[in-house]
Amino acid sequence: MSRHTELYSLIYQTLKKTISSQIPRPKSANLDILLDKLYKNDPNSILSLEEGIINDLGNNLELLNEALTLSRCCYFLSLTESETRSLQEAEMMFDIIQILESRPDFIIENTLSTLESNIIRDIAKSENLQQLTQWYKYLLKIENTFPAYKVSHGIMTVELKVFPLVLDQIERGNCDINDLLRIVYELSKDPRFNLENLKIITVDHGLTRIGELETQEKYWEISKTLGVIRENNIVESMKASYDYYDRKYKALSSEDDENGTIFALKKEVVRDKVREFINVKVNRAIAWKNADENVFVIKRSGTINLKGRHEVSVFQYSIKGEEEVRFDAEEKRAEKIKTKHDNVLGFVGMFRCKLNNVENLFVVTEPIGKKNSLNHIIKNKHDFDAKQLIRETCAGLAYLESSGVSHRKVNPYNIFFIDGVFRLSFGTSFLYIRENTNEEKFLAPEIKDILANPHEKKPLSFVRADIYSFGATIFYAITEKFYENEMNLNDIKDNKVKMILASALDKKPSARLLFKELYEIIRDMD
Asked: Which residue numbers delimit the Protein kinase domain (predicted)?
């Protein structure tokens, strides 16, 4: 029996009583059968039931109206088992609940709880702020109509959903800034919401699109109401006009304040956006990358030395489980690289902070682009010098090896061709198999064993594992195939390259030549 059995039974008894007193038995025989099915929870019979009611009660409009209302109750309550519901259907069900509320045997809390559960499901599926706002207003309607019932779970779901929807619409660039401000303003009036970060993001985004606002005065009025503009806020000083903001802050610049040096690394800097939204408690740089590819970085005093004009690339990763524990060790490992090398991408630093209660890792490097990656070159069949790739990649890895550092993530996604030189990225190596499923194809067998059996402790040389990944990457670059076993080496025509790969791809780690040894062989390769 479903959770609506009591209500089905109530409707059945009401219909039965109504129909039995008004309709000759022979004519109601088919209707009795349908009612019996209804009592046994056969929702498929509900529409047929309605047709039977019309046939049997067609001459009595008052009874017909009551009977149809009750049958439609059954129909819409059966929809609560469905995975889809439109706002129109929810409104109709709301009306039905109000009709049934006066009946003494109707347990309204159960039905309202069911309705709220379905609304929560649909809130989770909302694709834009407009849909979300409609459901929010509907929740308020339930509370206002039935004061004893609180839609606390529904409100919580709205709060969880509104943040990613705002960010998504800002990133896609498909939001009307006036609607966005109004929606956030309306939601912020509900004391049950904690939307401080969202308000800051919305107001700051409005600043970058101030020319699209209906009136600037309305924007500042909303901003003040949201409580975002405060004394000495950098936004306050910009409110004269968008042109002033664009002229003063679009150029790459830096300025000092009590928290260190603030750098505008790409387009513009809004101090409170970084400080308030990220809310980081670390002694390293802080960065945020928004939809316009602007990167905001605050340098905490004495940590990172950036002077003048700088562009960087910022990569963001979620940190979970043991990765969080390993962060400090990884950071110390990265700091061993004290000098620059032509074949290693400049590593600025890495730092972590919490976003939406999830620990995140930010890695800052010299600027790169996806189109520069070796993987992009291979996939798009661009020409490249295979021996240059071997020589320069090995040189970079030999440098890391001599610094006492293993890369741990050598693959085509982390090698870049910049200004005619192959360069390794560095700094995210302990995050295995995070974004590209094919990364597993380049891991050494012993690393795969660790990933498959994380609780087994085995001695491991990450440098030797890097050597295998180097070999697998070179093999893939030359053949466009993933390396599987030694038989694949027959696809390599150059005997010297084949010898290098045979050593690098040996299943036994100790049999693999170190990078400094490989480089001696590779250095003068024509």
From this structure: 220-526
Structural contact between residues 183 and 170, judged by C-beta atoms closer than 8 angstroms: no
**All domains of the chain, ordered by start, with CATH?**
5-197 (no CATH), 370-522 (1.10.510.10)
Cβ neighbours, 10 Å, residue 256? 10
CB 68 within 8 A of CB 96: no
| pLDDT above 90 as % of the chain | 13
When mean pLDDT is compared across 162-176, 279-293, 374-388, 411-425, the lowest value belongs to 279-293
Of 346 and 443, the one with more pLDDT: 443
pLDDT, one tens digit per residue, over 193-235 is 777 667 666 766 665 555 555 544 555 555 555 555 433 333 3
Q: Which residues of 419-431 are buried (b: 16+ CB within 10 A; e: fewer)?
A: eeebbbbbbbbbb
What tokens appear for 337 in the block?
């690289």
The alpha carbon dihedral of 300, 304, 308, 311 has a sign of negative
- Residue 10: how many CB atoms within 10 A of its CB? 19
Residue 503 has pLDDT above 90, yes or no: yes
How far is it, in rounded angstroms, from Cα 397 to Cα 392?
Answer: 9
Characterize the bridge pairing of strands 347-355 and 358-365. antiparallel
**Which stretch of DSSP H or E encloses residue 200?**
helix 196-208
pTM of the shown model: 0.44
Strand-pair category, 295-299 with 313-318: unpaired
Query: Closest by alpha carbon to 407, among 442, 437, 374?
Result: 442
> Which residues, other chains included, contact 266 with Cβ-Cβ below 8 Å and sequence gap of 6+?
252, 293, 294, 295, 311
Torsion angle, alpha carbons of 149, 154, 156, 162, to 10: -140
Q: Is 374 exposed, middle or buried (0-12, 13-18, 19+ CB in 10 A)?
A: buried
Measured CA distances, 437 to 287, 411, 442 (Å):
27, 12, 10
Minimum mean pLDDT range among 193-197, 209-213, 263-267, 372-376? 263-267
49 vs 91 pLDDT, higher one: 91
Q: Compute CA distances 10 → 71, 106, 296, 318, 484, whole Å.
A: 11, 8, 62, 52, 68
- Condensed to tens digits (0 to 9), the pLDDT of residues 322-340 reads 444 455 555 566 666 655 7
